[in-house]
Amino acid sequence: MLRRLVTGLVGAAVLAGSMLAVATAQDAKKDAPKDKKADTKEIKGKITKVDADKMTLSIETDDGKKLDFKVDKGVEFIGPRGGLSKEGIKDDRVKVGAEVKLVTDASGKTLKEVHLPVRKGGDKGKAKAADKAPSKDASKDN
Questions:
Q1: Is residue 5 domain-resident?
Q2: Which domain holds residue 19?
Q3: What is the band of 122 on the pLDDT scale with cuts at 50, 70, 90?
Q4: Which of 76, 119, 128, 140 has its CA 20 to 30 A from that of 69?
Q5: Alpha-carbon distance 34 to 78, whole Å?
Q6: 62 and 110 share a domain?
Q7: Measured between alpha carbons, how far apart are the two ends of the chain, in Å?
């Protein structure tokens, strides 16, 4: 009889402990921050207009919609490797015709991020400078 009583009490304690653990896990899940992507919307398109003075950016989406955005101080300009641009809207990659991905709030009205394309022409300047410099072989021909 005593053995059954002790076994029942141990079983009840184990059951109560497991229920407490489940309740704690559910509370932690509720308190966890919301998924960032659930609160945002991604839009891909080409830049059609940039006004750095008025801090505005216009794009045409892949499906032909034309959208205008105000670029506030909190908007991040992110390069293709994940680095932040210090120039923001004045970055040389923010130009008409550039393919960009915009991240907005869930409503699609407030701009949060601008994902910039790869910078083009980085090696062209070096190649042109090399073409202008006289080579060693050229001096032998003269």
A1: yes
A2: 1-32
A3: low
A4: 119
A5: 22
A6: yes
A7: 115
The strand pair at 111-115 and 76-78 is best described as parallel
Q: Give residues with Cβ within 8 angstroms of 44, minimum separation 6.
A: 61, 62, 99, 100, 101, 102
In Å, how far from its chain's centre is CA 119?
17
> What is the distance, to the nearest Å, from the Cα of residue 68 to the centroid of all Cα atoms in its chain?
19
pLDDT at 7 exceeding the cut of 80: yes
Which amino acid type is present at position 45? G
Half-sphere exposure of 45 (CA within 13 A, CB side): 21
28 and 80 part of one domain:
no
Q: What is the rounded distance in angstroms from the CA atom of residue 112 to the CA atom of residue 103?
A: 6
Contact 107, 73 (CB under 8 A): no
What is the per-residue pLDDT across 83-120, written as a single tens digit (0 to 9) for each? 999 999 999 999 999 999 999 999 888 999 999 999 87
pLDDT tens-digit series, residues 13-66: 777 777 777 767 676 666 555 555 668 999 999 999 999 999 999 999 989 999
